Amino acid sequence: MVSLGGPGGGVKRTRVHDWEGTAFNQATESENRIHADEVAQRYGFRGGLVPGVTVYACLAHPGLAAWGRRWLEEGAASVLLRKPLYDEDRFRVTTKAEGEFAYTADVLDSKGVACASGQVWLPTTEEREAPIRRGDPRTPRRSERPPATREVLERLRETGLGALEISWDEQAGLDRYVRDLRAVPALVRPDRMALANPAFTLGVANFVLAANVCLGPWIHVESEVHHFAAIPRPSALIVEARIVDLFEKRGHEFVDLDVAVFLAPDRPALRARHKAIYRLREP
Fold it and tell me: Model confidence over 63-97: pLDDT tens digits?
């Protein structure tokens, strides 16, 4: 359980509000085919799943709207993905204040089912521990990657995932978390100031895993995130990650990652623990 502390002085006290929107599956053409209708339906889902990082960004939206750039520079959040959210479904983010600078929240679909739950807050100085660059070797760019098996991931657990170099620019994916940009704060609108939004900042955890192995359909299930700097456009980023744990539960194979993101060459921007099912139980 995270600590729902408050920040130091100088933060504007702005009330956090509930928020409604329309779900956006922005990954229908991605390599992860769980976001495509035909594959998701084979695993028993109604259709392609809205990406977990997109659902996370919706849960974080009330904090981003209330605390603005300060949250992108210092904020923190945790999310547990419970049920699928589907494209074009109406959703509501319900919030409960936990002090002046923290809230708990649920993302509810149109039927009132909790698709995600979590906490969003501005930490105290004592809670913040910035990552430090390890100097991992560069993640190789390759068209052919080994399959995401337990054996391969155990080996990567020993050798590391390398340092992935990516960019936040006009060509970057995950540049929004809803289709209608009028619904999101101006500071993360790609047609305005274009600071990286929460879907992208956490999405890099997916990028670094997918750069190392060839994944089948896979599902993001849980994350805890700490920000240390906002990411302006354009920015060159370096992502260092390691596998913390691998385990099986109810026929699903899970991977638990520790991910650090830096504004090149070594300025800390974000740290996350990121858990996913990398191999689903066969339907």
Answer: 999 999 999 999 999 999 999 999 999 999 999 99
The 3 state secondary structure assigned to the chain is CCCCCCCCCCCCCCCCCCEEEECCCCCCCCCCHHHCHHHHHHCCCCCCECCHHHHHHHHHHHHHHHHCHHHHHHCEEEEEECCCCECCCEEEEEEEECCCCEEEEEEECCCCCEEEEEEEECCCHHHCCCCCCCCCCECCCCCCCCECCHHHHHHHHHHCCCEEEEEECCCCCCCCCCCCHHHCCHHHCCCCCCCCCHHHHHHHHHHHHHCCCECCCCEEEEEEEEECCCCCCCEEEEEEEEEEEEEEECCEEEEEEEEEEEECCCEEEEEEEEEEEEECCCC
In angstroms, rounded to a whole number, what is the distance separating the alpha carbons of residues 145 and 140?
10
pLDDT, one tens digit per residue, over 113-127 is 999 999 999 998 777
Task: Pick left, alpha or beta for residue 99 (phi over 0 → left; psi -120 to 50 → alpha; otherwise beta).
Answer: left
User: Looking at domain 19-279, which of 2.40.440.10, 3.40.50.920, 3.90.580.10, 3.10.129.10 is its CATH number?
Assistant: 3.10.129.10
**Over the stretch 188-222, which tens digit does the pLDDT of each residue have?**
999 887 899 999 999 999 999 999 999 999 999 99
Query: Domain residue spans in the chain?
Result: 19-279
Is residue 10 very low, low, confident or very high in pLDDT (cuts 50, 70, 90)?
A: low
Chain mean position to CA 134: 22
- For residue 60, CA distances in Å to 166, 181, 197 come to 23, 16, 10
Mean per-residue pLDDT for 22-45? 96
